[in-house]
Structure to design on (137 residues):
């Protein structure tokens, strides 16, 4: 009776050392190739994934939407090599290059609304338009 129990214990101990590592892999496929017009030096992505900031030569930042469309160009006038999106989500930090400075770019998101055909007061070519929403549900 002692031999079957000792064999079982020996088998369980040996089996605990036979853990085979599990290997995983990624299937890679290119989904989109975007021409940013000049050499891309660094990229940063917003925390929500909606915006990609591509730093190109001459300190130019190309702002891309989530689907890869270029929506804005920011000219910094400096020679930078790295761009980082702040944790707060309201700043870009540029560094590196030949200078010894770090540039912090504040980001303010501007929303545009199509108000054509809506009732309005004042001149049609006013520099500012205030939209008032009274029917939120």
């Amino acid at each position: 009776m002692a031999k079957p129990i000792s064999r079982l214990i020996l088998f369980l101990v040996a089996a605990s050392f036979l853990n085979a590592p599990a290997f995983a892999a990624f299937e890679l496929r290119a989904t989109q190739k975007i021409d940013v017009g000049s050499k891309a030096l660094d990229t940063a992505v917003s925390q929500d994934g909606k915006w990609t900031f591509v730093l190109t030569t001459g300190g130019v930042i190309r702002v891309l939407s989530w689907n890869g469309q270029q929506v804005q160009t920011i000219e910094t006038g400096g020679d930078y090599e790295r761009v980082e999106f702040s944790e707060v989500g309201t700043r870009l930090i540029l560094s590196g290059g030949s200078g010894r400075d770090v540039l912090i770019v504040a980001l303010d998101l501007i929303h545009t609304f199509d108000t054509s055909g809506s009732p309005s007061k004042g001149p049609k070519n006013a520099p500012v338009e205030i939209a008032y929403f009274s029917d939120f549900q």
Q: What stands out?
A: The mean pLDDT is 82. The chain is about 10% helix and 25% strand. Strands lie at 40-45, 51-56, 60-65, 70-75, 82-85, 91-95, 103-106. The longest strand covers residues 40-45.
